[in-house]
Amino acid sequence: MQISNIIVGELYTNCYVISNNSECIIIDPGAEPDKIIDFLESMKLTPKLLISTHYHADHVGGVKNLVEKYDVEFAIGKNDLNFLDAQPAWVSNLISTYEKPISPNILLLGGETINLLDLDIKIISTPGHSPGSICIYVENSIFTGDTLFKNGIGRGDLPGGDINQEITSIKDKIFQLPNDIDVFPGHGDKTKIINEKNDNIHLK
Ligand SMILES: [Zn+2]
Question: What's the CA-to-centroid distance between 146 and ligand 1, angstroms?
Fold first, then answer.
């Protein structure tokens, strides 16, 4: 398994490409689909699934173009479904390449294991930043979207958000995972569980 990070859009979203041989899964194709497509073509990768960690425009803005090009399925947390169509305009307006995503083919509840690319991709429900926020746990890595950042957490004041629920999700779900796993957040640098337990000032 290989993890690549393509930073896309005006909000510097981390779009992650998990690949194994010639196939890949794309997490948070949030903007600049042409930049993502250029990367896939240069690496000769075929996407088998798009997963967004949550509904916010900067995490779904590139979905439509990728689906049109690759005929790939799009998965998102079920509890974010109604918010996808009620995107706050001030957020989507920040993303110049934003296109309204297709309706998701797969709705995730958390607890699922998706078997693709010879990997077990575990979905963890972590509501709070948005009602349907999910984390994606595969091998020794977790992709946390905007729920947990390096020394930060996502805001809880966007539609459907709840900051206390978000902190509970982090402590009761993410922090129960092994301390040494790599955390790949939706924005900013990667980190490890142990570092956030020890250092994250928002979780003291
Ligand atoms: Zn967000």
Answer: 5
Query: What domain range includes position 30?
Result: 2-203
The sign of the dihedral angle between the CA atoms of 156, 161, 163, 167 is negative
Domain count for the chain, please give it.
Answer: 1
Q: How far is the CA of 186 from the centre of ligand 1 (A)?
A: 8
The CA 5 to ligand 1 mean position distance, Å, reads: 17
Q: What's the mean pLDDT in 77-85?
A: 95
Give the pTM: 0.97
Instruction: Output the CA 21–ligand 1 centroid distance in Å.
Output: 30
The CA 41 to ligand 1 mean position distance, Å, reads: 28
CATH code at 169? 3.60.15.10
Tell me how far the alpha carbon of residue 13 lies from the centroid of ligand 1, in angstroms: 9
Q: Is the pLDDT of residue 88 over 90?
A: no
What pLDDT, in 10s, does the model give residues 116-141?
A: 999 999 999 999 999 999 999 999 99
